[in-house]
Amino acid sequence: MNPISAIIVLYNPNSTIINNIQSYINNVSKLYVVDNSDVINRQFVDSLAQFKNLIYINNSGNQGIAHALNVGAKLAIKDGASWLLTMDQDSRFEGNNLENLIQCALHCDITSIGIMSPVHVLEHSINKPVQIQKVSETFDVMTSGNLLNLHIYQKIGEFINELFIDAVDQEYCLRLRHNRYKILLCEFALLEHCLGDLREVKLGFKSIRYSNHSPIRRYYITRNRLYLFQKYFWEFPLFGFKIIKWIIFEWIKIIVLEKDKIAKNKATLEGIRDFFRGKYGKYCSK
């Protein structure tokens, strides 16, 4: 039996995602498709019938990325999987990259490795990383493309539903490290990843990237990063200082470079407010 299942979390998907699914579905025993869309795209759902090892789950609206990941993990555990490939809808593997990642995971010590991750290559990136036959330890990774060790998931607990979206992956990585589990990077496995509305501007000889996230994403990013700072600063102080630096510099980028400055500044302040109130879960304007 293939010990690897997969999950993809959907939100307002379009037909291009089918090509992404095709890049990895034949390498896993089952693919759980958890749909967080508030309005279901029936035409897209019907097109999923071509995949025999796919299980579609209507999540009854947007329950957040953490909830969707937990749905997939619990189903995979019930079906006897040891690893769960966690995919975003905008990510894909090319060539033998997924096979390389799987071989890394299957030949590692399953008792000590919490996550095996590929190297993320951002869409439209001019220079791809040089692939070398090396596995290295890293501090934290993004969710997409990871092989999640389900045995350790059951030991340290689920993804935190209250975070809803943003920093869900970082929190899980910090919890792994707190429990002395490793996060490994398979440097000869590449994942093609589209990271939102990423933009770049040149200031003199320096190129500055900015994410141009929506106001609601700015709310979650700010609130949840402050949550990480509060929870993990004393154990991982360097990471804590990075969080504060990210919040400050991204706020500057909003003011200087991005559109919808007023709405994004308001959302950032609301994120700070709700952090101090201890208010988590899905955003509510009231």
Automatic annotation (TrEMBL):
The protein's superkingdom reads Bacteria
Domain Glycosyltransferase 2-like span(s) in chain numbering? 5-103
Concerning InterPro entries, the annotation shows: Glyco_trans_2-like, Nucleotide-diphossugar_trans
Q: Pfam family of this protein, just one?
A: Glycos_transf_2
Name under which the protein is recorded: Glycosyltransferase 2-like domain-containing protein
Q: What species is given as this protein's source?
A: Sulfurospirillum diekertiae
